[in-house]
Amino acid sequence: MIMPIRNNPGFQDHFDDDADSIMKFLWDFFPAPMMIIRFEEPGNFVVEAVNPTQKAMLSSKKIYAGKHLSYIFPALLCDELIVNCGHCVADGVPVRYEMAGGYIDGEYHQSDCQILLKPISTLQGAITHLLCIVNNPSTYSSSKVAHYSELEIERRVMERTDELTTINQQLSYLATHDWLTEAFNRRHLLELATTEFKRVCRYGLSLGLLMLDIDHFKSINDEKGHAAGDQALQTVARAIRATVRNCDLVGRYGGDEFIIVLPETDLHGARTIAERLRSTLQGAELFISIGLATLERNDQTIDDVINRADHLLLSAKRNGRNRIESASLTLIS
Ligand SMILES: Nc1nc2c(ncn2[C@@H]2O[C@H](COP(=O)(O)OP(=O)(O)OP(=O)(O)O)[C@@H](O)[C@H]2O)c(=O)[nH]1
């Protein structure tokens, strides 16, 4: 909001490239109330921004930006201010005047203060705004201003903490997900699947695992282009997500291969899901082969289940594709 000051040639003459940050610092922390006032037309001035000190002087709960000066100041002060703003715009030079009263901690006080109005012009010389600085000696002893500055620092620390938390969440998402399909990446899938494997073994529960692969995916890439191939992978991932439950684990195992871990799901349930997925994708003219394995008594790790699903997937490919192979039953499309 204080950018217009930067456009003032006078300002740029006196400061180097750090001018913005100096100005921002003064705006935020200088213990004098400041306002940027927008010149709309003669006699019509609107508040564009108030600095934290000014906000504390008035009432930090209200929003002042976009409001006419009369919203902030009582009629007498407002009329005087508007007249002086008018002089400042007409003469194009700073105006300083005394005002008999002002706001401290949201309350009106009869204490003299000085007002400085500085015109802010565009590079073409048109005055569009005024910087208004209030010099009120009582301001500096206001405990509320000091408190407000502390709150401002606290607010910034929290803002920065929130930013870092978001960045951390993004990094952790990138470390665990496949960027193209948003499925879990292979490493994270295996970590989660291992945990699930241990849990279902511990409680004697069932577990289904589907390994699927798009049929003739290479030819989609070769004939329609790599972008079409990417889209096909995204379509498959979306279809999987729409088919399985939230607690199921979906991961991109590599290339065009996906693994779906279905905790507490037996052969019958896993087959229903596999068939639903295959026929959904067939409707979108994408054909997949699926190897379906379930937890067996002698399995030692999740890799044992994955290896069985992998062999069954190979059988599905060998047996003609667009089909599901499972240990006890073969389903043909
Ligand atoms: N567009 C795209 N292609 C990929 C990506 N990752 C791997 N591929 C391609 O996926 C293809 C995998 O093809 P293959 O493993 O030979 O299998 P296929 O053509 O699906 O044949 P079958 O599985 O036997 O039906 C290769 O051409 C890879 O280049 C990716 O992220 N995007």
- Look at the structure and name the CATH superfamily of the largest domain: Reverse transcriptase/Diguanylate cyclase domain
The average pLDDT is 86
CATH topology of the largest domain: Alpha-Beta Plaits
Main β-sheet, spatial strand arrangement = 7-8-6-9-10-11
The fraction of residues assigned to DSSP E strands is: 25-35%
> What is the count of distinct domains?
2
SSE succession: HHHEEHHHEEEHHEHHEEHEHEE
> Helical proportion?
40-55%
Distance between the termini: 64 Å
Shape: elongated
| Total beta strands | 11
Q: Radius of gyration, rounded? A: 34 Å
Write structural notes for this entry.
With 333 residues, the protein is of the alpha+beta class. It has 2 domains: 143 residues, PAS domain (Beta-Lactamase), CATH 3.30.450; 147 residues, 2-Layer Sandwich (Alpha-Beta Plaits). It contains 12 helices and 11 strands. The strands form 2 sheets. A 6-stranded mixed beta sheet has the order 7-8-6-9-10-11, sandwiched between helices. Helix 9 crosses helix 10 and helix 10 crosses helix 11. The radius of gyration is 34 Å and the shape is elongated. It starts with a helix and ends with a strand. The N terminus is likely disordered. Guanosine-5'-triphosphate (GTP) binds next to strand 6, helix 9 and helix 10.
